[in-house]
Amino acid sequence: MLGFSARMAAGKTVVSNGVAEAIGAKRIAFGGLVREEAGIRGIPATRENLQDLGESLVQEDVDAFCVRVLQRNGWTAGNSIVVDGVRHVRVLDKIREIVEPQYFGLMYLNVDRETQLHRWKTEDLPYTKSLQELESHPTEIEVLTTLPQRADLVLDGGQTVDRIVRDVLRWSTSNSKLGDWEMRNERRILLTRKSIEGGLATSEIEELELLQGSFAQYLAIQHDPCQRTINSHRSKLEELQSRYGHPKSEG
Questions:
Q1: According to CATH, what is the number of the domain 2-160?
Q2: Is the per-residue pLDDT at 207 higher than 90?
Q3: Residue 165 pLDDT exceeds 90
């Protein structure tokens, strides 16, 4: 069971579709439900209106909002699901509570500002505010700040969809699946030290590559939430590689 979070125009729709197809799961989106509710209420579907409506639905009754999203495509307990558009910590916590004892993993898709602005040109909703103004809306704040900290994996949104899907699938079977960033970093350091001694199995090499990339992007977001510095996550990755070493994998 997976959820996707990202800043606007980061590419999470196409990625979440790709992951859902790969694992044979239903995909549902918070944005789809908000648009549907806007139609019921006769609210014009602009970016600003949907932001306001989505925030009000969370504040009015987050429990009912999450249940509606999960039931929208007929999800039942025990089935796989991919949820697109997790934008609040309260929503993340509520979904995890609803689906227990299954674990709901949060994937955070990160892109630099230049890539985001390029993709923003294909935005399908009318809007009047700038992207920077839209990102200052309450419904976007935790996407920029808290949710990367709560994510199980931070993915490089500049990679191909196939590569991102592969990384999600690798994460789902790795030993780094659960735990906070401190625990995952301890695991990463353990594997890097082991790699220096030349004792990594193939599965551990793949896990370390995933951890290195994810942790580097997490650090980059903490330093620059909007990723205004192009490829800042790559500089963090190079820093980690130079500090701890990095194993070479085949292909």
A1: 3.40.50.300
A2: no
A3: yes
